[in-house]
Amino acid sequence: VMTAPVTAILAMDMQFYDHLKFLFPHTDARAWFAGNEALIQSTAFRNSSLQAAYFMIVARGFGLDCGPMSGFNQEKLNAEFFPDGRFKSNFICALG
Fold it and tell me: CB–CB of 67/74 below 8 Å?
């Protein structure tokens, strides 16, 4: 990470369900999630992992190496970059 040109924080929006009226307009999907912390957590983690994988596929398609990493202090990272708590880091990825 210290020598990588760029390190991306791949994070999850813990209030993603607020966007469902636009993204999934044919029903009130927000109601499925609001107040259900276990479902919010599992859905946010799964979907942010999938989106991060697409991010890495595209980065590799542009010829960049990717070094996805866990094992860092997520609490410190979240406090520094996402102090309001809406977003939480999933993992980081060094690009170069």
Answer: no
CA angle 94/52/95 to nearest 5° reads: 15
Burial of 93 from C-beta contacts in 10 A (0-12 / 13-18 / 19+) = buried
| Residue from 23, 81, 39, 59 nearest 90 by CA | 81
pTM equals: 0.87
How far is residue 18's CA from residue 30's CA, in Å, rounded to a whole number? 6
Q: Tell me, what amino acid is at 90?
A: N
Q: Which residues pair with 92 in a beta bridge?
A: 9, 69
20-54 tens-digit pLDDT: 999 999 999 999 999 999 999 999 999 999 999 99
Half-sphere exposure of 90 (CA within 13 A, CB side): 21
